[in-house]
């Protein structure tokens, strides 16, 4: 998977490295600010109420 | 010919095995990132929301003071009070919202709908996160019998004290028979009854405050419950602009 992405990134090694870093940051931001907040209420381990 | 075929089959298997490994490692990293999110990022997000809510609430209260006060009814999702617990820090302030769905709890402690409002007879029941989302109720287990829990509303301060025997530090020997602290199962809904641990439809025997959160830390197996009783009547903000003396106990 990662070698495939690396091969398909355009430009030389330096450009590829910068693009790859940007991709990693983008994926982390997507997880932290979109996926996790959506997922959190659906998980059982942070329930603080009684009778719910 | 035969040799070339087996080499290409080998390299194909190698690619498959490597891809599976990459997916597993990536999955592990995502789970780690989720832990970081729960423990740190939710705190940052909730702190920001709390600051904003505090500003809005205080501004609203100032504006309201100029018109005659009307009996307050909370609307779901509304911030309506500020909780102070001096034992957890002189600057411990949490804006309380109406409702206990995740939407409210992600912003701060939530007030169980249908339970009493601050100062009323009955049981003011609040739920809050133990870990994450600002961890408002992380250290509820540090509360001792007699500790003040102060609720600030638009025009009044209400001082509740954790039940039990302050001299002996014993939660279980309160004259009311209600323990100051207990650990219960998630299904034990009678802790937020009008009289804590009483029947849900019985009339209240006094004015109480109940805080619920998960227990142990990082788990949702049980609930940590704190019960407190109202001390005297509410003090108006015109009498006590800086809050009751109980706020400065610690």
Count of β-strands of chain B: 10
CATH fold-level name of chain B: Sortase, Chain: A
Termini separation of chain A: 43 Å
Radius of gyration of chain B: 24 Å
Strand content of chain A: under 5%
Could you say which overall geometry of chain B the principal axes of the C-alpha atoms support? elongated
Main CATH class of chain B: Mainly Beta
User: How are strands sequenced across the largest beta sheet of chain B?
Assistant: 1-2-3-4-8-9-6-5
The whole-number mean of residue pLDDT values of chain B reads 89
* Tally of individual domains of chain B: 1
Structural class of chain A: mainly alpha
In helices, the fraction of residues of chain B equals: 25-40%
The total of beta strands of chain A comes to: 0
Count of spatially separate domains of chain A: 1
CATH-defined architecture of chain B: Beta Barrel
Number of helices of chain A: 2
Our count of helices of chain B gives 2
Summed over residues and divided by their number, the pLDDT of chain A gives a mean of 88
User: What would you call the shape of chain A?
Assistant: rod-shaped
Class per helix and strand makeup of chain B: alpha+beta
Biggest interface, which chains? A-B, 18 and 41 residues
List keywords for this structure.
heterodimer; A: 52 residues; mainly alpha; 65% helix; 0% strand; rod-shaped; B: 250 residues; alpha+beta; Sortase, Chain: A; eight-stranded mixed beta barrel; 2 helices; elongated
């Amino acid at each position: 998977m990662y070698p495939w992405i690396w091969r398909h990134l355009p430009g030389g090694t330096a450009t590829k490295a910068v693009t790859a870093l940007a991709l990693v940051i983008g994926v982390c931001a997507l997880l932290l600010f979109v996926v996790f907040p959506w997922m959190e209420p659906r998980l059982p381990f942070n329930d603080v109420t009684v009778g719910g | 010919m035969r040799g070339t075929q087996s080499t290409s089959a080998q390299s194909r298997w190698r690619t498959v095995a490597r891809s599976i490994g990459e997916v597993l490692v990536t999955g592990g990293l995502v789970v780690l990132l989720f832990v970081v999110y729960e423990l740190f990022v939710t705190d940052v997000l909730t702190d920001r929301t709390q600051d904003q809510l505090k500003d809005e609430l205080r501004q609203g209260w100032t504006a309201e003071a100029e018109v005659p006060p009307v009996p307050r009814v909370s609307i779901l999702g509304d911030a309506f009070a500020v909780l102070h617990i001096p034992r957890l820090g002189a600057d411990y302030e949490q804006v309380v919202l109406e409702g206990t769905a995740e939407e409210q709890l992600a912003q701060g402690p939530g007030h169980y709908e249908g339970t009493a409002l601050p100062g009323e007879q009955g049981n003011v029941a609040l739920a809050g996160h133990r870990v994450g989302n600002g961890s408002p109720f992380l250290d509820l287990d540090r509360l001792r019998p007699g500790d003040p829990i102060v609720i600030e509303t638009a025009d009044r301060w209400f001082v509740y004290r954790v039940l039990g025997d302050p001299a002996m530090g014993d939660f279980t020997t309160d004259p009311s028979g209600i323990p100051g602290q207990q650990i219960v199962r998630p299904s034990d809904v009678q802790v937020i009854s009008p009289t804590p641990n009483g029947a849900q439809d019985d009339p209240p025997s006094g004015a109480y405050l109940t805080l619920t959160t998960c227990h142990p830390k990082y788990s949702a197996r049980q609930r940590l419950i704190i019960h407190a009783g109202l001390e005297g009547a509410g003090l108006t903000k015109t009498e006590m602009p800086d809050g009751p003396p109980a706020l400065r106990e610690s």
